[in-house]
Structure of Deoxyribose-phosphate aldolase:
Amino acid sequence: MNRNELARYIDQTTLKPGMTHEYVAGFCEKAKENHFASVCILPNMIETAAQVLEGSDTKVCTVISFPLGFDWPDVKIHETEDALNKGAQEIDLVMNVSALKSERYDIVDEELEGVVKASHGKGAIVKLIIETPLLTEGQIVKACELAEKHGVDIVKTSTGFSAMLPRSTSVEDVRLIRSRVKPDTGVKAAGGIRTTADTLAMIEAGATRIGASAGEEIIGGL
């Protein structure tokens, strides 16, 4: 795999609070130069990213209900619609983990149905963040079933929000998700992936996207 091929796996990510629009614009310029798959930014930076990335092969990705995922479905759906109207092309939705663990699948069904419908209606893809570090193997399997039920495009391991998580994403997480979704459903590994070796291990396990804030270092490691 060469540098350009590896770059197409990476969602170059910056989700820290307090960033300026000037910083995000510069971040997007570098991502565009490296031909990363997308730039993943907070919703308040969508328009800045869209302006910089217009006409490039690097997509505008944003997060919905980040990082906790506990907003009610109607809030998540409205936030998604607003993000799409501002220029988002990819949606990383944080699943309501509490609802899943409580077996309130009706809540997860409602948020997925609404967010997927809104996104696909605008030609955008949906990545569902299921937060594997907080789930049992059985709960990960159930989350994958719900994702497939509603036509989610990519199942994503984690927010990588380390302050609330007991561990980072593992290769085993990726393998489990890959074994439980259809071949044409993507798998995004995110959370603690900082090196070229980490990235290649996740890809070997079945990841089709990598969420990382160290994209330049990762492709530079080749």
